[in-house]
Amino acid sequence: MLQSFHQEILIEAGCDEAGRGCYAGPVFAAAVILPKSFQHPVLNDSKQLTATQRYELRKVIEKEAITYAIAMIDEGEIDRINILQASFKAMHLALDELKIIPELLLIDGNRFTPYKSIPHHCIVEGDGKYASIAAASILAKTYRDDYMLRLHNEHPHYNWKKNKGYGTKEHRAAIDVHGLCKYHRKSFNIGGNNID
């Protein structure tokens, strides 16, 4: 069972992103404030769950969260500011949309650009430790997967409905045949095709 909170006094928001290591498509981020009493036996890092479990948990999170928000930064902006900064910016945009201002941020990972004057803790593998970060990881992942399914319909030969834009062997082979499309991140070294 994940820890419900980091401390008992301040209002905490968990933040995580999805799609940072992809060849194509945007990076998504989510911010979630859960009730202190929130617990769920299946809740975990989104990567440890099946797609069915993630979508079932998304319904629970959206129903029971005090507030949540999702944001994205597209591949063009990723190329302009780099993927790390784009991940932080997506988290900031999600935080902007929360209906309650958090007093402490729990960030998955080891780095973060401070958000306003709100203190934060960077927690490596935090999505496997704290409920609010796990919830954010699930929202970011499922919303991004939905988005990549829509892009798949435009460019089915890359099979994004399956690989979601990650650099699988199949995706790399499709790039070799069809080249890069407008949704690929041109600043990434994709199969030796770095055209930054």
Give descriptors for this structure.
globular; 5-stranded mixed beta sheet; Nucleotidyltransferase, domain 5; alpha/beta; 196 residues
Order of helices and strands: EEHEHHEEHHH
Q: What's the CATH topology name?
A: Nucleotidyltransferase, domain 5
Which CATH top level class fits?
A: Alpha Beta
Report, as a whole number of angstroms, the end-to-end distance: 44 Å
Per DSSP E runs of 2 or more residues, the count of β-strands stands at 5
In short:
The chain has helices at residues 51-64, 75-81, 83-97, 131-154, 160-163, 169-178; strands at 12-18, 27-33, 67-73, 104-108, 120-123. By secondary structure, the chain is of the alpha/beta class. One of its GO terms (cellular component) is cytoplasm.
Walk me through what this model shows.
This protein is of the alpha/beta class and 196 residues long. The chain has one domain: Nucleotidyltransferase, domain 5 (2-Layer Sandwich), CATH 3.30.420.10. The chain is 38% helix and 15% strand. It is built from six helices and five strands. The protein has a five-stranded mixed sheet with strand order 3-2-1-4-5. It catalyses: Endonucleolytic cleavage to 5'-phosphomonoester.
Write the layout of secondary structure elements.
Layout: E1 12-18, E2 27-33, H1 51-64, E3 67-73, H2 75-81, H3 83-97, E4 104-108, E5 120-123, H4 131-154, H5 160-163, H6 169-178
Parallel strand pairs: 1-4, 4-5
Antiparallel strand pairs: 1-2, 2-3
Helix pairs in contact: 1-4, 2-3
GO cellular component, one term: ribonuclease H2 complex
Binding site for a divalent metal cation: 16-17, 108
Subcellular location: Cytoplasm
